[in-house]
Fold each of these.
Amino acid sequence: MRALTLKNPGQDPLLLVESVQDPVISANQVLVQVAAVGLCYHDIAVMNGTLARGVKENVVLGHEISGTIVEIGSGVENLQIGQKIVTSLNTFCGLCEMCMTNRDYRCQNAKGFGHGIDGGFAELIKLDSHHVSVIPESHNLIGACLYGCPIGVANEALKLQESFEIGDTVVIFGVGGGLGIHAAQIAVSKGANVISFTSSPNKLESLEKLPVGQVFLIDDFLDIPELVFALSEDQGAKVVFNPVGSAVFLNSLQSLSNRGKMIVTGEVYGNPVKFNLAEIIFRDAKILGSSGSGRSGIKDAITLVDENIVTPIVERQYGFSDILEAFHAVQNKEIIGRAVIIPD
């Protein structure tokens, strides 16, 4: 089979399409023909060298994987050849405390696909049977690769501590990206007053046509907290969804209502943040971190798509040979939603 291997990270990373042996499955594994793999910013960070700790040498990237089962091990009873599936974002043991409390994405023995072990930028991938989730036959495999991340990740974050109710104001930063664009759809579907922000002028017109609330362009003149309070009857945001991190941290904090929550799901630039603790204290505010989605999160994502609550947003598809074009497009914020890699 062919696999796309990262040989040398950097601003012009070296990735090679190589011919490697087909995976050989064990009794409790399945072999999956890869249909599509989302190009997450995690992949970009590994490719450009920002994220290096724990990354396998010559790694095959990709953790947002969909495909079709083409072979089943002798010990697998609950799956069939030909079924459409999506994979978990990481391996998990199913036995540790995290797995037993429905947080298998935090498994104490986990390895991330496309990080600690090879991922989906290949024609075939072998998987333990409990690392796949069957999806309805009617679902499109291209969009389905987004079920674990970003759709499942965004949904898990917005469910934290019963974050908001109908009519509450929810602010979404990075609404042009994969996490933001799906989080906004979820918040709108739950009856929130959604105020979304993008820093990409090229995305504004397209975003205004999607069900992501009111959309505003971040520029040097926009006072974000002032706008949020003006559009929320001076209450502020019950929830701020922040997949960008440090770049919008202070605006996120200052936009919160009394007892509001900032949910941070990403850090794009790797910068520290300095702020006045009074901003938290006198709001009774909370700052929460959230990342990952497990089996239950993928199941919820399937339901969200099945009930037309969320539409997976895939703007562009690239083949293995186009990986550098895809890398630069995502890094330069050209893509609305996700770019997807297709074995070509």
Note: The mean pLDDT is 97.
Amino acid sequence: MTSLTEAVRRSAMVCILTVPATMTSHDLMKLLAPFNDVTEHMKIIRDSTPNQYMVLLKFCSQGASLPVMELTELPKCTVCLERMDESVNGILTTLCNHSFHSQCLQRWDDATTTRLKPTGLTALCASRCPVCRYCQTPEPVEENKCFECGVQENLWICLICGHIGCGRYVSRHAHKHFEETQHTYAMQLTNHRVWDYAGDNYVHRLVASKTDGKMVQYECEGDTCHAEKIDALQLEYSYLLTSQLESQRIYWENKIVHLEKETTEEMNNMKVKFKETLERCDNLERRSGEMGKEKQAMEKKCTQLQTRVSKLSQELKEEQEMNRCLRANQTQLQSQLAEEERKGKETGE
């Protein structure tokens, strides 16, 4: 790494560590088009990290720098058929070690239709090599995570049911899935290696290439791969495939039986609940009829009480009127009596 504080000569190489997979090589060249005159070389680099890749840039105006490892320079550009020497600027080297002029590759603009799995939809891949048709930028994939704890590192997928769990050095959910279901084989998502839990060892016969990450066949050394060994390998894989298919069949049959059992129990519970609901409806209807009869009786009784109240109110008014008349008569009689007493006193004198 070149120091930014010390007075040392800076390197002419720059590495873009993270380029999103949605940006194709054409988009990258369009982004760096203003710097084609000072760019000597570009190289695309990919690792196992999903949804991104790296780009190594070498400029021609910042002094000497380290050479690009594993670089194969073609004598001629495949697009324009012109020679590419050290004086040519703006060379792009793809993952398949094919080199082109950046401007030529921009004008190529080859969009190839690619079928996406498992959706079956089609998409355009505009970053294929004009020579070998290898797609340079990775296709965006969904980020996987453990079904139990949700971590996204050291993941293993079961080859029987597709369960994704973390490794034994994280939370051991993949191994716990094996203990629960006895599904023996799981594949690591980063390097596609297959692990046998029963044999406690890897069982894959394919290895990944260190240059482009493609799966290649593992070659035997010398003349040891005879017909007997090939037949033994065929028998081994036939047995492996048969046993796993049988295990997968048993697993899904058990799952179907379990679902049927759950469905039957659910239906029985629903029937019981439906019967209880009908009984409650009948009880409510019966109670509603009784309440209707009680309502009619109460209305009749209320009508009788209202009639009686009206009669008593009328009698009360008559009594009050009679009482007022009697009090008026009493007052008049008292005044007459007082007048007669006064006259009697005057006559006696």
Note: Residues 143-219 form a domain with the Herpes Virus-1 fold (CATH 3.30.40.10).
Amino acid sequence: MSKKRDNFLAMFSAEQGLILGLAPMAGTSTPAFRGLVSELSASFTISELVSARGIVYNPHMEKVSRFLQADPRERLYAIQLFGHDPQDFSTAIRTVLQHPVYGQTNWIDINMGCPVKKVCGTGAGAALMNKPDLATAIAAAAVEAAAEFNKFVTVKMRSGWDEHEISAPLLAKRLENVGVAGITVHARSRNQFYGGKADWQVFSEVRAQCNLPLCGNGDIKTADDIRQLQEIVKLDAYQIGRAAMGNPFVFEQIRAGMKQEGKPREVSGDRWLAAVLNHLDGMIKLLGEEQGCKEMRSQFAHYVRGVRNAAVYRDRLMQIEDRQSAVEILQKVAENMRTR
């Protein structure tokens, strides 16, 4: 397995020791945002979760095109699939990788960590933590299909279903045995959803069982967090999730913080405005002005978090219907930031 490990990590050879990626987040990890964080030093990005069965039923993939397509600024990019049927994964992966555009993805990631009821209720996502035989069969089918196109398969999982059954270590070992190239562990159980505190000890437990490249996720927000983690276990990479929402600069802030102690330098109002408009314009290009602005509303709430009079700006941004209305409010926010 050491050769497979080295081959997968070779993709990241330009990262000089610190591999920071954007975690896949529904509603956030759009091509526009993935491209933006890539400009701001994210090493890799992963799409929002896409249904394997949805691709089987719609092999032309028109309905999921917005999730599958890459942004030209992305450095390394994976498509994440979810489901509960090994055959669905075999068919979906071949369909995706045969496509002239989507097939350019660097690897395929399997979601075994989504905690939401809509996904788990179908037997997919974190529900697979309770079905290691099925999870292994899915991974094996995915690896076989992706190998036809010389692509790797990775898996993202939770620590377990609940705090009483931490199943990630043994499942990671089984996935290694069927050819998975890397593992990401979100250090929370499914029952925690996104609350409570991530238990980083699970990374050590997975490392003890599995020799694959290991990526950590969960409460990783700053350079100090990574320093603390490095005292616990050697990870190969880190995924940044909610800390990136409204702060695409977090990747360069962590990199700067690893080189020097202290609080990261504040982002200027002008630079903040340029980033938000970049995100907005990317969504408009992807979806059109009306839908792009509508879907950006939830993102605006994150961008204005912590700004003076944030509630006022947030309420106004929740009602915008066109780009110009958004720009006028965002310019006021940026001016507020310049005078703080």
Note: The CA atoms of residues 246 and 303 lie 4 Å apart.
Amino acid sequence: MGNLLSYSGLTTKVRAMDSHLITDGQFRDMAALETVSDAVEYLRHLKAYEGMFSDLDDEKLHRGAIEQRLILSLYQDFAKLYRFSNLTQRKFLDLYFMHFEIDILKKCFRNSMGQNRLDIDLSVFRDFFSRHSSLDLIKLSSSSNLREFIANLEGSIYYDLLAHLEEGSETTLFDYEVHLDLLYFKTIWKVMSKYLNRKSQELLIQCFGSKLDLLNIQWIYRSLKYYHLKSADIYALLIPFHYHLKKDQTAKMVEAGTMDEFFSVLKTTYYGQKADMDIREKPDLEQLTSEVLDKIYRSTSRQNPYSIATLNSYLYLKEEEIQKIITLIESIRYQLKPDEIISYVVKQ
């Protein structure tokens, strides 16, 4: 009864917002459009994206500008949910917000690593971040190089970690991203046990534990396929955590001699069995990850509608929707055929 009372209003709000997520039919309609302008015009008429593109004319419809507005719609949804939440629910949302911060930091690293300078406009997010974060986005985006960018993080939870990495002579983008992910998941585990009840912890572990397993699977795959790393080097990259993925399954994938062998092991795992895709066909690992996580997040929310899973599931699905929109619009920009475009965003 306690959960029903504390989550009834919030669950009603989430259901209303969930009804505005883009359907497969709407994605098919968008995939048939001929220009980026047409796709953005379509979004302008959807409830979830009303007003998001009002200041953009056709000449400004480049990927960065569109992506900024889509992410801003996610932040606005987060702010709506935050206003509806009680103190315990806000503890979870504060924790989730760290994920937004890390995404911003990753974007900055990706932008700067190749050219040793930052060229990214974060001003559109300033108002939102000023209410939830201690990071100074304007100061960060005005950094002239990577060293100054990291120096401008002093006083934040990220500074000591990134400053230590920056001292290394051969630190790569991958190093920064992996260590940020590790920091995030360690913080989740620490905060969950302190502020959330056992049931809430169990629901979140289903999602975050699966995410960690699937991240490790993707890193093993990339290490074998693209970088041909030795087993010892692959183990060094992995997050030291096992949820549904067993230690012996991890070892067999790491030590696989061929990609056929890797996928043969993957098929025996919880995730290989949960996927609808035929593992023998060597499916795209990112699509497999998206499919499996989609099932897990939807399942936790459906089975526990008056719980933290409702918030967690909606925010995940909104982020997935934004990635699909970006993929679809960029596919239109490069004049791909509608059938090919829709294959990237809608489960066949």
Note: Residues 198-227 form the longest helix (30 residues).
